[in-house]
Amino acid sequence: PVSGGAAVRPSLCHLYFPSVLFFLIMEVLFWSVFFSGKHKSSLVNDPDQPENSKILKVAIIGAPNAGKSTLSNQLVGKKVFAVSKKVHTTRSQAQGIFTEDDTQIVVLDTPGLINASKVKRHQLERSLLVDPWISVREADLVLVVVDVSDRWTRNKLGFEVLSCLAQNQHIPAALVLNKVDLLKNKSMLLDITVELTEGIVNGKKLEVRSAVQRFCEKLRDKQGWPCFQDVFMLSAIDSEEVETLKRYLVVGAKPGPWKYHSGVLTDQSPEEICTSAVRERLLEYLPQEVPYNVSQTVEMWHENDNGALDIMVKLYVTKENHLKMLIGQGGHMIGRIAREAGQDLMNVFRCEVKLKLSVKMKK
């Protein structure tokens, strides 16, 4: 084994545009619960909820690489979900939690919606196929995220998304147009909105300029969903823009018992957060199919007396050339992944982290 160390608001509808006039994001409390034992105990402890508690479970769905996990991280206020430019970074459902005063929002981050043939063709986990559907059924609200910078997909909701919405019509849904910062012609946003909503938001017809109306009337194959309650336009990497959506969720919470202790930010264990951070770097630096064929095992997790964490993770590969790429010349690649993933963990756990990675051929 080789190792490396460490808005403009048209009448009759709600359209939310980027704004800097909303509330500042509150500091997340009780970060100490993320240390291994304390975090686990907080997950099983009874929630410390107030007398008049409110809660909202929000499922975030959309096509692969639409920015769902980035949005989830911004809502929670900390990077607890892996993010990369490659598709299928999120492999299964994970929950993020943010709690403000008497209100708790549970964010259900899901894999991108794909069909069964793609799962079979690329030998993907079954969780990619079923987890988004399970999350929607558990949710009080569905956020459908669309990447408006992708000219191939921005003008229609995929069949899987539409099917999921159609089979869960009783659950309210809102449309989130993401990556608006990458769209040079911002006037296209209204056109995209009309197409994705079929010109109807909150049960009422959008009042749009006549050119858009004529365009909409000519559509033969509708690719939108006419039952969205609201539409948000934002960049998920901008916390100020996401804050508008965050306020919307807090206001929409209903009376009910909290699901988690107020100090918990995710239902993932510290070990799962660690492997997620490593996987993110594998996806970022390794080419093509290589990162999807690397498996991980946490070999050691030790908390020192001073609060520092010593972590050892073993990476398994199935091909000799994959092993060489993962190690890199002189151990450069494995060392870089260990350092950067270790830094991510320090930002999450708020303590010193010494992460060591080793690579081994899987028999």
From TrEMBL:
Membrane topology summary: Peripheral membrane protein
Q: Which residues form the KH type-2 domain?
A: 286-363
InterPro entries listed in its UniProt record: G_ERA_dom, GTP-bd, GTPase_Era-like, KH_dom-like_a/b, KH_dom_type_2, KH_sf_prok-type, P-loop_NTPase, Small_GTP-bd
Question: Is Hydrolase tagged as a keyword?
Answer: no
Coiled-coil features, chain-numbered ranges: none
Q: Per UniProt, which keywords does this protein have?
A: GTP-binding, Membrane, Mitochondrion, Mitochondrion inner membrane, Nucleotide-binding, Ribosome biogenesis, RNA-binding, rRNA-binding, Transit peptide, Transmembrane, Transmembrane helix
Q: Is the keyword Cell membrane assigned to this protein?
A: no
Biological process (GO) annotations? ribosomal small subunit assembly
Give positions of region: G4: 178-181
Task: Kindly state one GO CC term assigned in the UniProt record.
Answer: mitochondrial matrix
Return the annotated region ranges for G2.
Answer: 88-92
Q: Where is this region: G1?
A: 62-69
Residue ranges of every copy of the Era-type G domain listed in the record: 54-256
State the family named in the UniProt similarity comment for this chain: Belongs to the TRAFAC class TrmE-Era-EngA-EngB-Septin-like GTPase superfamily. Era GTPase family.
Q: What does this protein do?
A: Probable GTPase that plays a role in the mitochondrial ribosomal small subunit assembly. Specifically binds the 12S mitochondrial rRNA (12S mt-rRNA) to a 33 nucleotide section delineating the 3' terminal stem-loop region. May act as a chaperone that protects the 12S mt-rRNA on the 28S mitoribosomal subunit during ribosomal small subunit assembly.
Known HAMAP family for this protein? GTPase_Era
UniProt-recorded name of the protein = GTPase Era, mitochondrial
Recorded source organism is: Scleropages formosus
